[in-house]
């Protein structure tokens, strides 16, 4: 082979050509299939965006209705999966549960590995879009010790997830339009982000021709980490800690700047955005609106705003072009909706699902080769074996 260049973290290495998401980190632009994220968040619904990402075009009314109907037909998970949910301790981290359950679906849907035709692929896509919200809801209900149940196919996709999550036994469930709209918008903003860590994972696992569900399960594990999707949970825990500490933001700013301290300002910085994260801008405005509409006053929102203001005026953050990212304000909205902190990254996964699917599908349709990076070997050169008695 030729010369191997090492690029830790793939900071300057492209892994594929893609026609799904355009991102200009210098200008803070994010577009799905050419449509700006601002416009989609304002005007589209999550399922429309899912269709757009996966199939490349905004759906007509007929296409949208058929897509939704096909997803609804698949919205039942084999009842045996409940036994797997049962086996987890209540204290299990929801991301570990979600990744396991997604992997478990391969056992109940063996045909989901078929990609011989567009139809095969379509079937896997609607299957996972139908079943994933059930897994998300069951993960939360397990945590809360609530009975596991299926949704209501008369509801919209996002309404249905919320009902499955929060319906209490023997109580009528009332939808809150503010929460439905806010979640819809958040899911759209999380739906794709080109070749990030979890998406690259989905593509690389899928490149070995492992099936869609197995690839997604790996992507969920990648998303879990606090440097990636897990940051939304870490942000809220950080804001809570600051509040407990009497609101001393300066102390945490100092810790984040201290190179001998591993603490980072969670929800700040991004590999690609070096100006601002357009998603964070929308989510910040949305946090104000949603908390206002729900009549929630959360001192944590003020701490977050204070921290942002300080960071944007601090030369450490300014010089390194560190700005609030998508995870900085999202948790405040999830919390106002009644979603527990350790479920935040699960909500991110629910939003990212269409993006992962779209990227996996593109990778398979383009018949990309197996992902297999090279290395530069820096270990010992050739050595002779030493018997144990002589070591
Ligand atoms: N707090 C303090 N310093 C930081 C931070 C931060 N949040 N982020 C980066 N830096 C510093 C870093 O120490 C380095 O300084 P120096 O040049 O003096 O060594 C410089 O900024 C560049 O950082 P890097 O780690 O080389 O940048 P990266 O592109 O490898 O990492 C990142 C990007 C997002 C992992 C990182 O900014 C980070 O850890 N942020 C906190 C976690 C977070 O919010 N993650 C969510 C990312 S966005 C959505 C998602 O993926 O889910």
Molecular structure report:
The chain is mainly α and 391 residues long. It has 2 domains: 19-227 and 342-365, Citrate Synthase, domain 1 (Orthogonal Bundle); 231-336, Orthogonal Bundle (Cytochrome p450-Terp, domain 2). It has 17 helices and 3 strands. Strands 1-2-3 form a 3-stranded antiparallel β-sheet. Strand 2 and strand 3 form a beta hairpin. Helix 2 (46-55) packs parallel to helix 17 (344-365) and helix 9 runs antiparallel to helix 10 (212-224). The longest helix is centred in the middle third of the chain and has 27 residues, at 118-144. The chain is globular, with a radius of gyration of 22 Å. The site of carboxymethyl coenzyme *A has 20 residues, from loops.
Radius of gyration: 22 Å
The biggest beta sheet, please?
3 strands, antiparallel
Q: What letter string, H or E per element, gives the SSE order?
A: EEEHHHHHHHHHHHHHHHHH
CATH class of the largest domain, named Mainly Alpha
Q: Enumerate the distinct ligands.
A: carboxymethyl coenzyme *A
**Secondary structure category:** mainly alpha
Give the full name of the CATH homologous superfamily of the largest domain.
Citrate Synthase, domain 1
What is the averaged pLDDT score? 96
Strand content: under 5%
According to CATH, what is the topology of the largest domain?
Citrate Synthase, domain 1
Count of all domains: 2
Helix percentage range: 55-70%
- Low-confidence sequence ranges: none
Oligomer: single chain
* Adjacency order of strands in the biggest sheet: 1-2-3
Which CATH-level-2 architecture of the largest domain?
Orthogonal Bundle
How many runs of DSSP E, i.e. beta strands?
3
Count the DSSP helices.
17
Keywords: Acyltransferase, Transferase, Tricarboxylic acid cycle
Catalytic activity: oxaloacetate + acetyl-CoA + H2O = citrate + CoA + H(+)
GO molecular function: citrate synthase activity
Family: Belongs to the citrate synthase family.
């Amino acid at each position: 082979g030729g010369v191997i260049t090492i690029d830790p973290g793939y900071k300057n290495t492209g892994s594929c050509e893609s026609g799904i998401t355009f991102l200009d980190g210098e200008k803070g632009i994010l577009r799905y299939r050419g449509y700006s994220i601002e416009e989609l968040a304002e005007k589209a619904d999550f399922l429309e965006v899912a269709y757009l990402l996966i199939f490349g075009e905004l759906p007509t009314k007929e296409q949208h209705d058929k897509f939704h109907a096909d997803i609804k037909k698949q919205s039942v998970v084999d009842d045996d999966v409940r036994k797997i949910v049962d086996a987890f301790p209540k204290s299990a981290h929801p991301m570990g549960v979600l990744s396991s359950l997604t992997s478990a679906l391969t056992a109940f849907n063996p045909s989901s590995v078929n990609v011989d035709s567009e139809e095969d692929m379509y079937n896997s896509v609607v299957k996972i879009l139908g079943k994933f919200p059930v897994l998300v809801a069951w993960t939360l209900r397990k945590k809360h010790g609530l009975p596991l149940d299926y949704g209501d196919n008369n509801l919209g996709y996002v309404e249905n997830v919320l009902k499955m999550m929060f319906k209490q036994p023997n109580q009528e469930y009332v939808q809150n339009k503010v929460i439905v709209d806010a979640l819809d918008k958040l899911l759209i903003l999380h739906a794709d982000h080109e070749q990030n860590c979890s998406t690259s994972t989905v593509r690389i696992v899928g490149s070995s021709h492992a099936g869609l569900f197995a690839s997604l399960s790996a992507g969920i594990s990648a998303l879990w980490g606090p440097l990636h999707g897990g940051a939304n949970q870490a942000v809220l825990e950080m804001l809570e800690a600051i509040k407990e500490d009497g609101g001393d933001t300066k102390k945490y700013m100092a810790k984040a700047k201290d190179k001998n301290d591993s603490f980072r300002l969670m929800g700040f910085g991004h590999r690609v955005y070096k100006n601002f994260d357009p998603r964070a801008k929308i989510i910040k405005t949305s946090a104000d609106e949603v908390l206002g509409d729900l009549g929630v006053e959360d001192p944590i929102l003020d701490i977050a705003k204070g921290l942002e203001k300080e960071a944007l005026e601090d030369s450490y953050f300014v010089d390194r072009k560190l700005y609030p990212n998508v995870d900085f304000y999202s948790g405040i909205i999830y919390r106002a909706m009644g979603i527990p902190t350790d479920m935040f990254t699960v909500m991110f996964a629910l939003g990212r699902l269409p993006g992962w699917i779209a990227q996996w599908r593109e990778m398979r349709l383009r018949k990309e080769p197996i992902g297999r990076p090279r290395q530069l070997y820096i270990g010992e050169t050739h050595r002779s074996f030493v018997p144990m008695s002589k070591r």
